[in-house]
Amino acid sequence: MTVEPDARPAAAARSRTLRVSEVTQETKDSVTISFEIPDAMVEEFKHVPGQFITVKIPSDRTGHVARCYSLSSSPHVEDFRLEIGIKRTENGYASNWLCDNAMTGMELTVLPPSGHFTAKNLDVDFLFFAGGSGITPVLSLIKSALVCGGGEVTLFYANRDAESIMYEGQLAQIASEFPERFTVFHWLESAMGIPAPEDVESAIREHRGAQIYTCGPAPFMDLVQKSAEACGVEHASVHREVFQSLTGDPFETATMRQLSDDDGVATATVYLNGQSITTEWPRNTPLLDVLLAQGHNAPYSCREGACSACVCKLVEGDVEMAQNHILVEDDIADGERLACQALPLTDAVTVSFDDL
Ligand SMILES: Cc1cc2nc3c(=O)[nH]c(=O)nc-3n(C[C@H](O)[C@H](O)[C@H](O)COP(=O)(O)OP(=O)(O)OC[C@H]3O[C@@H](n4cnc5c(N)ncnc54)[C@H](O)[C@@H]3O)c2cc1C
């Protein structure tokens, strides 16, 4: 195995410092943070609608914590601007720190955009189900689909009450700009209770054929997923983003980890950034670590099976995942695997990061 330890890209090498250009109070318990992107970083921070960045938040207790925040800005609409929307989590740490401390001129360390809650084709009909802060990646997708595509875009947006609606003004503005193509339906739990399967199913039936995207609390997304199944929507047309806190530290140096005792070697063929890479793959080492150790620019963020930044598609052979907190059964049946957790089960394995 020809791994040069010094060739391993440290996460520090991927970290960037961005200056906060504006902080806007969205609701009483949420803020939008806008970042200035220096010219030299514009390419690196060009995101795909639906992606997130990972933010390093200082802590007296642990030095820092890392948290992912979806980008609400659209690369297709705004002049180059990067915005995240943060909602306070009860008894949480990072979200409250950001809501309390973020201010214009502050510098924050972040990892560049990643994630797969994205659309291959923006020129289709979309049906979005957002709950609470789950609106952030959805807003980016909505703005992008309206500008780049020609389909109908519908948003079912659930909140506790009218005061909790993030981006209400922006959504109303978009609705007035695209009256023929964009419809927003606000579901307020204070007045309407928790949405029932028939409420979600009737929206899905009304927009049959649309790509369904959902982001919000787990029970809300489960409801959308089950309703889509009940309406006969195929799994590939339902996309979900899970918001959860990282427990590891993607800002630490990316050292090689050993996830099993098996020290045999398999062969990996990997399609990545338009290249085909064939390499020896120690059976105890996650595929992502093998690629990073060789200096390949493989996508990743959490390295703990929680964020999906490193998703790749199994083309041939088989792998097991040491941990998986994000892919559901159907994703796995579709061949999706987390490279940060993937260990080879067969002597030869082919995966693709390019063709998801
Ligand atoms: C892909 C993705 C996208 C996301 N997008 C968004 C988004 O757009 N908007 C949004 O609001 N959220 C988003 N999230 C969720 C976000 O990453 C956080 O999970 C959320 O903000 C809650 O974090 P928190 O630290 O406030 O709460 P918690 O994680 O619940 O905080 C409690 C944790 O912090 C630790 N802790 C407490 N005090 C301290 C301290 N002083 N120092 C160090 N640790 C401490 C505790 O031990 C405990 O582990 C996203 C998550 C993912 C994975």
From TrEMBL:
Residues 266-356 form the 2Fe-2S ferredoxin-type domain. This is Ferredoxin--NADP reductase. It comes from Gordonia aquimaris. InterPro entries: 2Fe-2S_ferredoxin-like_sf, 2Fe-2S_ferredoxin-type, 2Fe2S_fd_BS, Beta-grasp_dom_sf, Cbr1-like_FAD-bd_dom, FAD-bd_FR_type, Flavoprot_Pyr_Nucl_cyt_Rdtase, FNR_nucleotide-bd. PANTHER family: 1,2-PHENYLACETYL-COA EPOXIDASE, SUBUNIT E, NADH OXIDOREDUCTASE HCR. GO terms for molecular function: 2 iron, 2 sulfur cluster binding; flavin adenine dinucleotide binding; metal ion binding; oxidoreductase activity. Residues 13-120 form the FAD-binding FR-type domain. Residues 1-21 are annotated as: Disordered. Its cofactor is FAD. Keywords: 2Fe-2S, FAD, Flavoprotein, Iron, Iron-sulfur, Metal-binding, Oxidoreductase.
